[in-house]
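=== RUN LOG ===
request id: a7f3
mode: sequence -> structure
chains: 1
length: 454
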Amino acid sequence: MTHNLDRRTVLAALFAGAFSQVWKVREAFGREGTGKGLVIGAGISGLAAARELKSHGNQVTVLEARARVGGRVWTDRSLGVPIDMGASWISGVRGNPIARLAREFGVKTIVDDEEWALYDRSGQRISDDTIKEVRAEQESVAEAIEKLTEDLDADISFSAIVRRVLAGEQLDAAEQRYLDLFVVGIESDTGGDADKLSASYGLDDDGFGGDSHLFPGGYGQIADGLARGLDIRLSQKVTRIEHGDEGVRVTTDKDAYEGDWAVITLPLGVLKIGSVQFVPPLSRPKRDVIERLDMGRLDKIVLKFPRVFWPHDVTNLAYVSDVKGEFAQFLNGWKLSGEPVLVALVGGKFARQLEELADEEVQARTMTVLRRIFGDGIPGPVGMKYSRWGKDPLAGGCYSYVPLGATSDDFGILAEPAPPLFFAGEATNRDYRGTVHGAFLSGIREAQRIRELS
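=== RESULT ===
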């Protein structure tokens, strides 16, 4: 497939429209260190941009709709233990800027040892030999998918390419469940449903090497560290952004703010909802990209128990269900905090279905699976917390992914500046979308762009 045929044409049009505005904005910015601007959103990208700009002498005000910083980095303590309801992992610490920040802020991390306890549909623990065989089969399927993707003449869904790879194979019931577990893993990584996820572009992003790490005290410590010393106005929900040659005027549900420029870090899900009005509207290419790209689901159901009844020594537990995606993964909170906590991770279509249910029913369904694995004698939870990112109007989902009809280049189009507006966030980072480090790097990128115009 030719992936970049239309990109040059689209970007040329964007640059042509923005170039004439750049010189007018240069005059408003003046020399370095004199700019006055706004950052919309105190997530990781907004905090990174504001911190970088302030460090070079710019006057920056951050407007945040929530009563806390961090955005989709959210460490909840309502159960008496720090639990990350959003981002959890530093995905590969080698060269990762979040790992550097953790060291700078003195935040403790631990290695995800990738040790798993895997249980079959009846609740029996699967042997290590069987796990090795399953992993080998999954790696073989993954390699075949990668090779076939390179030869596609037209994009198809991830589900469709799996079917092509396995065409003619007769899977028994157990093999089908293991295949479903593999597909669910892809859905959790990307946030997208396999039948909507682009086979050509859905997995073509980059990553960092090395182990992945978790935060015993919560990922929110990174957001708190970035926020120190910044002028952040919490509980300021932005409703209108006016922009032009004279700068920007941002209206919230409480006040109005003005600046020479603004860094927009609204999640893709919020842009799709359209709860913030841009005057004049964003360019047609940006609006088209917002329509094409999508937000995925990866929710967390946190259950705190009076005691630990699961294996202490593994970080992750997996369940091979008859129902695709049904509570396929649990994170062992005991290894993180020393507290009897299990965190169910649910993604894709199954997560969307659960979000329609009341908390009581979600808890009951989770406990049905846990009792199937560990027996009817296990205690009930003493507390529960459920993320429901898809129902959050300030997020609209967990993170962006590439559905059919979109390409990876769409992230770059969303990132293109339209002075005096600049755009950051994980959905503007083509190489590292859907990650905290991608969000952080996008904020630094836009701060540097603004400085270049000074």
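=== NOTES ===
The longest strand covers residues 238-244.
DSSP finds 14 helices and 22 strands in the chain.
=== END ===
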